[in-house]
Specification:
The chain has 22 helices and no strands. The protein is mostly helical. The protein has a single domain (11-432), classed as Up-down Bundle (Growth Hormone, Chain: A), CATH 1.20.1250.
Length: 442
């Protein structure tokens, strides 16, 4: 969205876009997007820790998330391949149904493995879950961006984040509580219901209004262009290399913090019900407030200032876990840490996702957003999987979370430089601009 767009002058003007059909669709597809992530993230971490798996092995499981970072390799298939039979329902709709079914199958498989008996089988199941979830994300992100109009990117991203948090929090909380009484297998099977909202939304709402259909994929050469064209178009933009560098480094500290925090909770002696109440419960409501603030401030401050503020808040929020490590087992401390962390993450998630969405060209929505979102956390995930467990053991939690705050500084400084040079505006794609009737064109 252009910085020159006039911000809403009233509170109702800021709230109304959240209630529009396109934003509500973004909410429901977001619910299903958050569900697979939770199963191989916090939920699996807790499950492995309770089965007595070593920290270094547990953090190595975060490498399964690297599948998400590789999703750009097959995102072109989602953009360019029309599915037989169900393809009559629409390009995006048919892919939503197929990828949703893949996620359900992968979740059932993950439910049936036993980490205590076979860690290797659990790792394979986690990778399959990540592959299915990443494919679902490719479709969901493209559907969201093409459904939203340019002026709806901020609120629509906010609604998507609302949905994502409800899906991930619902999966995590439901799994923790059910696992306490019925075991982890039942816990995973119950969470499958969260895969359905995106599929139902696609059937009800139909094809996105800004979806661009390209027919240049009938030959082998056409397939080659389909794979390369999204990257070539992005990299030809002014300052593209610096924008890509920002995408790579801006989330290092945040990723390190989020993927290890359940280890902190386990070592401080928090029980499943305490985590469910103070982390999942209190954090959930703080995240919702942060999302609303993000949507409003994105409209009022504009893209650049709202993103810079988000980067600063997300960096500082990591210190809350260092303070919790100092305090020890304290429900008040856990609630305070998760409140601040989730306010910052909720606000940051809205404005950063809106910015990344605005970078896309509507001819290559799935491919380009897959590249952007995959690059956004790849460095942090590699560091987490390869060395986070050892760093915690060597430095302790306090110094580790202080280190994650320092790791966020390069992203802040780089975006500030991009603001000063006008690079942020020059690198935007047509998804962030109005083109006649609001639709893209080839």
């Amino acid at each position: 969205m252009s910085e020159s767009a006039a911000p809403p002058r009233t509170l109702w003007g800021s709230v109304r876009p959240y209630l529009e059909k396109e934003s509500l669709a973004a909410f429901f597809v977001g619910v299903s997007s958050g569900f697979p992530y939770a199963l191989i993230g916090a939920t699996l971490t807790t499950r492995l820790a309770q089965d007595g798996i070593r920290k270094s092995t547990i953090t190595a499981f975060s490498l399964a998330f690297l599948v998400y970072n590789l999703k750009f390799l097959w995102a072109w298939v989602v953009d360019g391949v029309r599915l037989p039979l169900i393809g009559r329902l629409g390009h995006r709709v048919s892919w939503m149904l197929l990828s949703g079914c893949l996620v359900i199958a992968a979740a059932i498989n993950l439910a049936l493995v036993n980490p205590a008996a076979d860690v290797q089988a659990t790792a394979i199941a986690a990778i399959l879950m990540a592959a299915a979830g990443a494919t679902y994300d490719i479709v969901i992100d493209a559907y969201r961006i093409e459904t939203l109009k340019p002026h709806q990117l901020g609120p629509g991203s906010g609604m998507s984040q609302y949905g994502w948090r409800i899906g991930s929090t619902g999966a995590a909380a439901l799994a923790l509580i059910i696992a306490l009484y019925m075991g982890w297998q039942a816990a995973y099977l119950f969470t499958i219901v969260l895969a359905f909202p995106a599929m139902i939304t696609a059937l009800v709402v139909g094809e996105p209004v800004r979806h661009v259909v390209s027919h240049a994929r009938q030959s082998l050469a056409g397939v080659g262009r389909s794979i390369i064209a999204p990257f070539v178009e992005f990299m030809r933009r002014s300052g593209a290399w610096l924008v890509l560098l920002f995408i790579l480094v801006h989330k290092i500290g945040d990723t390190l913090s989020q993927l290890t925090v359940r280890l902190l909770f386990n070592d401080l002696g928090f029980t499943n019900d305490e985590i469910a109440i103070y982390d999942v419960g209190v954090g959930f409501w703080a995240f919702l407030v942060g999302i609303f603030i993000g949507g409003v401030l994105y409209s009022r401050l504009g893209l650049k200032r709202s993103v810079l503020l988000a980067l600063v808040l997300m960096a500082v929020s990591n210190l809350s876990f260092a303070l919790l490590a100092v305090v020890g087992h304290s429900n008040t401390g856990l609630a305070a840490a998760m409140t601040f962390e989730n306010l910052a993450s909720g606000y940051g998630g809205v404005v950063v996702v809106a910015y990344f969405s605005a970078l896309c060209n509507l001819q290559f929505t799935a491919s380009q957003y897959a590249l952007i979102s995959a690059a956004a956390s790849v460095v942090g995930r590699v560091v987490t999987g390869s060395s986070a467990g050892r760093l915690i053991e060597q430095l302790g939690y306090v110094n580790f979370y202080a280190l994650t705050t320092v790791a966020a500084l390069p992203g802040i400084l780089l975006f500030w430089y991009m603001m000063r040079t006008g690079m942020v505006d020059r690198a935007l794609g047509d998804a962030g601009r109005v083109n006649g009737d609001g639709k893209g064109s080839v």
